[in-house]
Amino acid sequence: MPALMEKFRQERLSIAEEVAELSRGVQSFLLDVKTERQKQAQEQATALRESFQKVQQDSRVFLTATQKQRLAQAEKQKEDLRQFQEQRLAEAKQLADDLRQQRLERAKQLKEDLSQFQEQRLAEAKQLEDDLRQLHLDRAKQVKDDLSQFQERRLAEAKQLKDDLRQFRQELSIYVFGK
Q1: How far lies 36's CA from each of 10, 25, 27, 88, in Å?
Q2: Residue 173, C-beta contacts closer than 8 angstroms, at least 6 positions apart
Q3: Do 173 and 179 touch, CB atoms closer than 8 A?
Q4: Rounded Cα–Cα distance for residues 72 and 78 (Å)
Q5: What is the pTM of this model?
């Protein structure tokens, strides 16, 4: 039994050495795995950092390009708006000038029409005045002619009466005095 114990002890030592050897192997394997994983993690971290830096750089480039594009669009819109505003102002000025010109032409036309109307009214008034003067002259002549005829008739009647009276006196004188 001691031999068995010794054998058992040796086996146990042998198992312990194998376990220790396995443990060292496992430790070495784990250390290698850990080292490999750290190396992979470092490579992944480096790759991730580089990828992140590239994304940041690409983002900066994209944002810069986008900002430049938007600034260019804003400048173009500003220029378009300025041109539109200038065009509207020019159109408004042209419209105001056209309206002013139309008003001036209308005022001139109205002035000419009024002048012609006044001239026409003055001519009509002068014609009316001439017609009235002629009517008065004609009426005065008619009245004068009528008075003249009336006078002539009255004179003729007076002469006739005078002649009749003379005749009557003569006849009366002959009748009274007998001669």
Answers
A1: 37, 16, 14, 74
A2: 179
A3: yes
A4: 10
A5: 0.40
Structure tokens at 72: 């260019």
Rounded to an integer, what distance in angstroms lies between the CA atom of residue 85 and that of residue 79? 10
The residue type of 96 is: A
CA 176 to each of CA 85, 166, 168, 169: distance values in angstroms, whole numbers, following the listed order: 128, 14, 11, 10
For every one of its 179 residues, what pLDDT tens digit does the chain have, with 9 covering 90 and above?
A: 677 777 777 777 777 788 888 888 888 888 888 888 899 999 999 998 999 899 999 899 989 999 999 999 999 999 999 999 999 999 999 999 999 999 999 999 999 999 999 999 999 999 999 988 888 888 888 888 888 888 888 888 888 888 888 888 888 778 777 75
Instruction: Give me the amino acid identity at 87.
Output: Q
Neighbouring CB atoms inside 10 A of 118's CB total 11
